[in-house]
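Final report, closing paragraph on structural work. Over the funding period we assembled a curated collection of sequence-structure pairs, and we close with a single example.
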Amino acid sequence: MNKKVDMLISTLNRIKDVSLKFKNPSFNHYFSKKAEDCLEMVNNKRENLTEEDVEKLINEYSELENVLNRQTTVQNLYYSDKTDVDK
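Its predicted structure, as stored:
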C-alpha cells in the first residue's frame, strides 16, 4: 500500500511540474492547485485511504498527466499574452 501511495504522490508531483509549463497563467494555476490539493488530502488521510481509493486516484491522475503532457504543447503554441483588442 505504501508503494502505491508513493506512486500517487510521485504522479501528483509530476503533474505539478507539467502544469507549470503552461504559459497561460489560468491553466498553470488551476492544474498546479489541483495537484497540490490532492497531495494535501493524501498526506492528511494517508492512513485512512483504502487500496481502492489509491488505485482510483492513481488512474485518474495518470490520465490527467498524459493529457497535460499533450496539452501543454498545443496550448503553448497558440497562447499569446498580448491583448487582441485594438484601441
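The radius of gyration is 16 Å. Residues 2-59 form one domain. We thank the funder for supporting this effort.
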